[in-house]
Write a structure and sequence with these properties.
By secondary structure, the chain is an all-alpha fold. It is built from three helices and no strands. The chain is elongated and about 55 Å long. The chain crosses the membrane at residues 33-52. Keywords: Membrane, Transmembrane, Transmembrane helix.
Length: 60
């Protein structure tokens, strides 16, 4: 349950950010914004999944 709320909030935030950025004239296309957003989301998920467990590192 906890992650579903987080995923929903992140999705709504990404959509709002994309709508805000795409409302201005810029040389950046929508596909570029979506691609960079996807890569950043993937990096965020990777960081959460593979965080360091210090007890395992130090053998406690």
């Amino acid at each position: 349950m906890k992650y579903s709320k987080l995923i929903l909030a992140a999705t709504l935030g990404a959509v709002a950010l994309a709508a805000f950025v795409l409302s201005f004239r810029s040389p950046v296309g929508a596909d570029t914004v979506i691609a960079y957003g996807s890569v950043l989301a993937l990096l965020a998920v990777t960081a959460v999944e593979y965080r360091i467990n210090w007890r395992r590192v130090f053998g406690r």
